[in-house]
Amino acid sequence: MDRDQLLNALSMMGLTNREAEVFLTILERGEASVKDILESVDIHQPQLYNILTSLLRRGFIKVSSGRPKLYSAYSLPTIIDTYISTLTSVKELIKGAKRRHHESQRIYMTYGIDGINNGIVEVLNNAEVEVYGEIPVWLLKRNLRSFIETLRRDVRLYLIVYPSLEGVDLSALKDHGDQVWIKVNRLGDFLLLAADLSIGIYASRRGTMRRSDAYGYVLYDTDMLARLMTIFTSTWRESEDALYINPEEGKYPRRFLSMFFAILTIQALLSRGHNPVVIVKGTYLKNGEPVELRERVSNINMYNRVSNIVLNTGNAQYSIGGYDAELEDIEAREIVIESLN
Questions:
Q1: Considering only CA atoms, which of 301, 268, 298 is closest in space to residue 178?
Q2: In the prediction, which pLDDT does 139 show?
């Protein structure tokens, strides 16, 4: 990285041009007195003292106790780590404030590709369990680093990419093979990325192609996300595997908020001779009472728009549906595959 790039990076961290020049001068010298700095930087002495005070206060440099005072810089990796830690703390505070705010606001519009891109990053940053959706390949490439950072938090990823995966380096994604299931579809329905059925970004397929006047919607509405997910899961069945999650690999217990992907995983385990134990947390549809069951799956139903599992507790048999279930006994809020057998 050349000096101009370093100056630009330091300005992104909040330093003025003069502060960045003084900091780099100290960094390059190892240590420097006021006289040394004045010989290298075209600056008045009173202004230099103000800059040194600012750099000291913000933790970019340190100063000796002797005479003359010698200033030395903290290493850039140390400063960057501290900066990232501070930003992470601020981000968590902001996320908490946003959750309270979004209790009343459910749908927002976002304009331009940068606005849509920020929506994608926000969805990924808020994911705790799973992310699902459809995305054009050029937006995947643009945000590949954010997807990988999400996987590092043990979030699972179910993604349809269209029209192909051409130009995508899958090696980093393969490092998280037990978390990533990617399919390819030549057409795709739309841009949709949802996290835990609590936040999502949506834009029309054509809208993401018109980059100059693109717009989309940031959604905090579970019902609307569930309707879009119905279209997504239909397309999922028709798409071709590119990276596949082997259900026999990876960590268990494994928690699911999407009934569709819970069923696909259970179905795959059953077909391989396993007899998984599941925990279902949800609500009885008959009376609205909360329920938690732990049992082995006795049956799976997947036809038309119906997807459910059946548990036999010995005393009774229960059908378990996902969000907005109507035909089943229980609406599941989450399903945990506790163990393979």
A1: 268
A2: 93
